[in-house]
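Q: A reviewer asked whether we had any structural model of the full assembly, not just the individual parts. We don't, so I'm hoping you can provide one. Inputs are below.
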Amino acid sequence: MSSVLFETPGPRTRARHRIYTVVTGVVLLGIAVWFLLVLDDNGELAYELWEPFLTPAYIEVLWQGLLDTLAMAASAVLFAVVLGAVLGAGKLSDHRALRVPCWLIVEFFRAVPLLLLIIFLFLGPLRLSPYWSVVIGLTLYNGAVLAEIFRAGVLAVPKGQAEAAYALGMRKTQVMVQIQLPQAVKIMIPAIISQCVVALKDTSLGFYVLAPGLTTVGRRIWIEFGNQFQTAVVLSAIYIACNLALAALATWVQRKYVGEKRLVVPTIGVAAGKAAGDLP
Amino acid sequence: MEDLIDQYDLVLQAFWLTIQLAVLSGLVSLVVGTLLAAMRVGPVWVLRSAATTYVTLVRNTPLLLVFVFVFVAAPNLGWFVDTPFLVKGVIAVSVYTSAFVCEAVRSGVNAVPLGQAEAARAVGLTFGQTMGSIVLPQAYRASVPPLASVLIAMTKNTSIAAVFGLAELTFRMRYFSNNSADDTSIFLAFAVLYIVLVELISVGAIGLERRWRAAR
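A: Here is a predicted structure for the entire assembly that you could use as a starting point for your response.
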């Protein structure tokens, strides 16, 4: 294997690498064993602490929490796609009166922490329920991000497509809806699925306003059993499994429908950003 | 709004705490993330897979759960019991952000064409020269925009520390909202403070990009 950093190794380098591999392997294994010993010393491996996650009643509670989390993420993403399409189209508009407000809204909601937004929706003049605070907060934030994805997607459609459509006498709306959008959606779908990962992770913020969902259920479990560590491990495992499934879906869609082409979405103020969805 | 002006010292303290969280976590995660990236692009198989596993696990875990591990679960193991909250917050944010820094740096290294290093070796540059004058300068340049977005997201993510009792901006915004009817202007005031931080990072990134722009 040759890379920009090193040449394809020869026999002596390979031997040296084998030694590194063994040494680092032993060190990492040592760390893992030490961690298990620490867990054992503190009684964290005791069966009673893990038992709730094998008890049908609690599995059901967790399952309900997972369903709530997925429902919040899914509805937020659905609303966000609509909002993103509207704001994205607004940012592409020929009219300054439409372009500037859309740009302002997008920049504002991309720059404000989601938690601040959720607290405002929860405590502010709207006084939304915890569930809707999270869903609307996620919608506004992800809608602003998706607006950028949408804009980048439309701009990624070759210019000749729109020009040809105008030459045929189509109107602006027709060109957008019938020519540019169908082609843009294809490129956008992997980025939208990646954004679902972000939305799913962010539903965990419902914890602060006690919205239904995995983290709130988790808190109830660890208050009852005092098994904070075990609950955190199980919740992380659930989130990781869901997100890896989504990531696999995004890769599959990319390979099957889009090919090599990747969307470049500008980040706030920075000229050329990386693909959306890779953000913390 | 009067509340904010009367108790401006609380707002300033909160702003300072957010800045501390962001700067310290930014520095730690840049160092750790770069190390992880070095492991991921290096030739040693064990290090490569260890770093890949770390990045995959951490990137798919919500930051809130990382905070739960550090603030709620670790004391059960006898860890971080007397650690100051700020340090614990920095640990949680850095553990999470390092994974994203690693990916940003790695994408920068991968953006350097293979031919650059091959040409450098062909004209007889040593490994150190190849790295120092050819590969790394180009890799840094390519990773500025993704690193800036990671740092911006991290700055916003420090707000999660509010959930665990750090009196930073989001925490104070909740405090003021609880004690006042004038929620909207309070929200906007705190939002503006965050926007100032975010814009500072992005202006810095644009400056660096312009300065390091390579003629290609």
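A: Points you may want to mention in the reply: The two ends of chain A are 31 Å apart (CA to CA). Chain A touches chain B through 64 residues (CB under 8 Å).
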